[in-house]
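Lecture notes, continued. The same structure-token format from the folding unit now serves as the input rather than the output. Read the line below as a description of shape only.
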């Protein structure tokens, strides 16, 4: 279909397209406004490796260099801390010490999905897998583009529950890293002490004493320091008003997407109808392209001979004398 005919068909459908756009936007806006909102609790942390307190810096004479600009991935104890935030043990902690299981069960039992689960006889009670899936969806870890700090945010429908869950997760991940480091130092100290009890060489005993002093220092700092994996730059705090989902942004995006969807559907409908339905009806007996009357159809059968002039056939002129049949004398 030519573009001119397509635009003409769309112009004839402008009223229906406007009504469909308005109906689509109102339906989407009602759905957006019906979504439950959530509070966001946020904390800003920095890797403890940046302050030279990690075990790697205690065991080596010089700290290991940090990752470059082309490799912004977390390393060291801070990577273990970030992994522990979404671990199975963290989900077990929330299920044991908070009311997240009851909240998830209420969400699964409410709304159309809850009615459908009850109709089909599906499971409604939330379990540990649901808690871990909720933790993976609701917990966001974002690296700052201007510094070495990281933002840890947790979204929850209840304001107090969001703050409490984030505090518990931070404390759990920090305690896990601390316990792992203390256990490593304890095992090394025990192994070195056993070796010292058996070793009789003076030079080897001197080296073993140096290693033992390093491990004892590492265990002492791990037990005494406030943070071994993530140092709090800003303590966990929760906003006063819920911000998720962002309703103004979603409504603005819907205002852009609804006309585009209706325009695409109208274009498809015009193309499916074809040129015959897109063009106005022509008068009977007129050409559809030009609108002029058509010529009457030519009758079938052999063409009639042309009428001869009155008086019979036209006489041929006489030949000149002496000219033969083929024009030669």
């Amino acid at each position: 279909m030519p573009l001119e005919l397509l635009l003409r068909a769309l112009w004839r459908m402008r009223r229906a397209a406007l009504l469909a756009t308005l109906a689509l936007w109102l339906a989407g806006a009602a759905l957006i406004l019906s979504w439950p909102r959530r509070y966001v609790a946020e904390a800003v942390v920095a890797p403890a490796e940046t302050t030279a307190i990690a075990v790697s810096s205690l065991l080596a004479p010089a700290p290991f260099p940090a990752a470059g600009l082309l490799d912004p991935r977390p390393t060291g104890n801070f990577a273990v801390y970030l992994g522990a935030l979404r671990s199975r043990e963290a989900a077990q902690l929330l299920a044991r010490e908070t009311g997240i299981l009851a909240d998830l069960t209420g969400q699964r039992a409410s709304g159309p999905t809850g009615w459908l689960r009850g109709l089909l006889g599906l499971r409604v009670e939330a379990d540990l897998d649901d808690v871990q899936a909720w933790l993976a969806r609701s917990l966001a870890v974002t690296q700052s583009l201007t510094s070495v700090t990281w933002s840890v945010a947790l979204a929850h429908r209840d304001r107090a529950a969001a703050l409490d869950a984030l505090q518990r997760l931070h404390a759990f991940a920090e305690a896990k890293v601390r316990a792992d480091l203390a256990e490593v130092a304890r095992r090394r100290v025990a192994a070195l002490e056993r070796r010292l009890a058996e070793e009789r060489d003076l030079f080897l005993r001197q080296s073993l004493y140096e290693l033992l002093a390093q491990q004892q220092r590492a265990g002492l700092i791990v037990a005494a320091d406030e943070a071994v994996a993530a140092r709090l730059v800003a303590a966990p705090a929760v906003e006063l008003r819920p911000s998720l989902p962002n309703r103004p942004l979603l409504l603005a995006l819907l205002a852009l997407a609804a006309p585009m969807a209706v325009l695409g559907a109208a274009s498809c409908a015009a193309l499916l109808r074809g040129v015959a339905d897109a063009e106005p009806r022509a008068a009977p007996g007129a050409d559809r392209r030009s609108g002029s009357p058509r010529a009457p159809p030519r009758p079938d059968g052999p063409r009639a001979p042309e009428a001869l002039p009155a008086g019979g056939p036209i006489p041929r002129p006489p030949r000149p004398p002496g000219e033969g049949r083929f024009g030669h004398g």
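Point for the exam: Residues 61 and 214 are 10 Å apart (CA to CA).
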